[in-house]
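Key idea: predict the complex, not the pieces.
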Amino acid sequence: MLQNSDLKIHYDKLDTPFLFVNKPIFFNNLTRLRTEIEGLKCELRPHFKTLRALESTPYLLPKKSSPITVSTMKEAEALASAGYRDIIYAVGIAASKLPRVANLLSKGIEIKVILDSVEQANLLNDFSINNHCAISALIEIDCDGHRGGITPDDPTLVKIAQLLDRGAACFQGILTHAGESYQCFDQASLRAAAQNEVDAAVNAARHLRATDIICNIVSIGSTPTAHSYQNLDGITEVRAGVYGFFDLVMTGIGVCTTHDIAASVVTTVIGHNKERGSLFIDAGWMALSSDRGTASQPKDCGYGLLTDSAGKVLDNLQVTTVNQEHGIIEAVDGSNINFDNFPIGCRLHVLPNHACATASMHQHYHVFDIQTNTYDVWTRVQGW
Amino acid sequence: MLQNSDLKIHYDKLDTPFLFVNKPIFFNNLTRLRTEIEGLKCELRPHFKTLRALESTPYLLPKKSSPITVSTMKEAEALASAGYRDIIYAVGIAASKLPRVANLLSKGIEIKVILDSVEQANLLNDFSINNHCAISALIEIDCDGHRGGITPDDPTLVKIAQLLDRGAACFQGILTHAGESYQCFDQASLRAAAQNEVDAAVNAARHLRATDIICNIVSIGSTPTAHSYQNLDGITEVRAGVYGFFDLVMTGIGVCTTHDIAASVVTTVIGHNKERGSLFIDAGWMALSSDRGTASQPKDCGYGLLTDSAGKVLDNLQVTTVNQEHGIIEAVDGSNINFDNFPIGCRLHVLPNHACATASMHQHYHVFDIQTNTYDVWTRVQGW
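Result:
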């Protein structure tokens, strides 16, 4: 792919292992979903948790006022410093995080937290009074039994919203996440999960509005369901994260193909195991992560599938074992790998099980754009 | 533990999740092994791959001339910049790493690489000639069929050593690693693995010396075998890495107890799942890693066991599920957790499956010493 290009110089100079991003594919993934969601007359609120690199935001978000989701206050603070204002911190709020939330509020950042308990509502009200602020909050709805949240018909939903409405905090709406959709492997079940997610959110909003509670935000989303909605009436926004890079878990679920996977780990073949007909590579779990997301899928991809440096998927090869700094590639059918095809020193790309996990092992992403002949380095915002 | 101490102020001020190091326990672990190995009249060459923090080196190594092992050139360069000189880069050498090796050699750093093939030997000789240097190399010996390396009786061993001896590179000796020892769960099998490791190395050295090849270094080691040697005659040094922190995998193997685990992830209880009688915590795989090293052990510890903030192990609790930024704690016996004992906002420590993996998810370690009443922050050397 980079064969006859200035980019090859950059590619060759980098030590392996490194995280490679194919920018046209990345851009395609972003455009595809934004077009689908906006085509359904809804807003997209991407999740920053996969990318966590500020250099990605101009591609992710059309404007500084565009909405975004985060999984840590660290991401929120980084985005705020880059001028982004509309942020949902989408992990159940804990007291220890509130000073940082209040700090961003005081700077005019519209940060919203999520909760699913009376205790948390009281916490937010008390904190708001004591710190002369008004913490904005969404109630998390449980749409499929996967995680936290209140089921739409649970009377606690109205109780919590009323507590917030009547207290010093500020109730902004509801949010749900179809965590069970990761167990879907065909279009029909994906569409059902997507519809279920919509219905649960719409029902929750209806219950609230029936008691005259204003429900501004009705937020739903997961990458599998985000690509499977047929109607978004009653929904104000859709969230999704891993779709920018995609990965083998998403491929297994069926919302993309391996050709849509924009992030891969470039590795060098460092040895041949003649007895086992396997290859040693210099990418171990430090470069790939230990994530085995495909282990519970119909097609288990080990620690990753391989492509050559031109991006062509090498069927029948998988990373089967990882130590800290090296891995082993074996043939899926148990045959001996033809070492002539994979000489020591040649480079391969490992497609990740779970892009969020693999990207988290890298401080920098090496972003190549063969269409514009540009090479960029993106720096990951790490930590909490 | 930090109850009546100035340290509590630091502890309480830190946002969770964070990596907590109990320095007296850490120091104990280091002292224990060094005393054992030096008591057997041998040298200890710790592995830096677990800690990867320069602030740890004064505890790890008595002098700047003390020997150390690394898993990446990044670690080697960091140690060299801190004045350490005697380094083994213990992952099978690849061509792409050699310029960095040569760079350190030119600065007088005694860095040694490892290899197990004729191709690599030729590579080292050619590079040495072409770059006017003499790459020092050890041949990796396969002592237990676990990984790479040449078996002691394989004639290729002598062939490779002779190639190096007669070429521009510099043959320094042999190195082995008892990778299969991680499958040992009792003292007898650990001792057998340790003895086997010694025998393999001694045999390999003997074969070489029988052909008049000088074998200066005879290097063996893994944390399990390092704690199980009865005699080290013929061995010049022992390597081990995770023993500084220890972890649940090492506890399962039997070389330590949970009381010896010096590194843990501090997390906050952020929610109660009343239906399932489980706790939500703010530590997910981003804080813990996805490593499930105990999954194949007699006692599977899920994603980690728990202690209270005083360090007392909470039997019957495990982290059973992790998402990116939150985790779920459940009772091992399936009972409902008594929420009164774990109120929202309370802190727990997660003991890691695999300390090398968990530490790798953190940019900083928070090191508490209740004996000297000191608190330090160590910074991890990340990347490649």
